[in-house]
Amino acid sequence: MSDITQLILDDHERFRRQFAAMDDLTDPRQLQEVWRALADLLEVHAKAEEEIFYPELISRGSGAEDETLDAVGDHNDIRDGLHEAALHPVGSEPWHAAVRKARVANSNHMAEEEDDALPDFRRHADPGLREELGRRFQAFKDEHPGAAGLDVGDIDPQHYVEVVKQQLPGQRPAEPDGSLGIGGLRERGSA
Ligand SMILES: [Fe+2]
Ligand SMILES: [Fe+2]
């Protein structure tokens, strides 16, 4: 079973469980172990959605553009928390504050994805496509263990949507490696 909407839900459940697991930890080494894996998965998951899921949603969904603008903005908020946490010693007060920022942003975002974007996509994408995209989603994650090789900087949501729309319909892949070439879109115009 590799329906992309199920794989996304599986990751969301991992996020919830790993954040919950950290509630029981105080030892910085144990916190670091859980946090490293969780932070990496949050990075790869967001990128995989931006590379594979949201472009397809834009080409098919009914409220897709607004859902995508919201989602990429949320991904930036999550990334900001992750990158802020990396600036502080694990277990310190500012580290906990940054982790909470990522957690809250992610919880709010998962609810929107699960209540809006995923239902919209299910209504407009047949099971065969969802399976094919699921295989690509999983392959993307396998190709980037620990978020290796990914540009995890913030991206401009509006520019992202414009680039994706320019490459639709039926003109992908735009890059030799099969990616949309959107991974390096830095947020423009604001810090
Ligand atoms: Fe997600
Ligand atoms: Fe997302």
Automatic annotation (TrEMBL):
What Gene3D superfamilies does the entry give? Answer: nmb1532 protein domain like
Q: Where is this region: Disordered?
A: 165-191
Domain Hemerythrin-like: from-to ranges: 4-119
The source's domain of life comes to Bacteria
Q: What CDD domains does its record include? A: Hr-like (cd12108)
Q: Cross-referenced PANTHER family, in alphabetical order?
A: HHE DOMAIN PROTEIN (AFU_ORTHOLOGUE AFUA_4G00730) (PTHR35585:SF1)
Q: What is the name attached to this protein's record?
A: Hemerythrin domain-containing protein
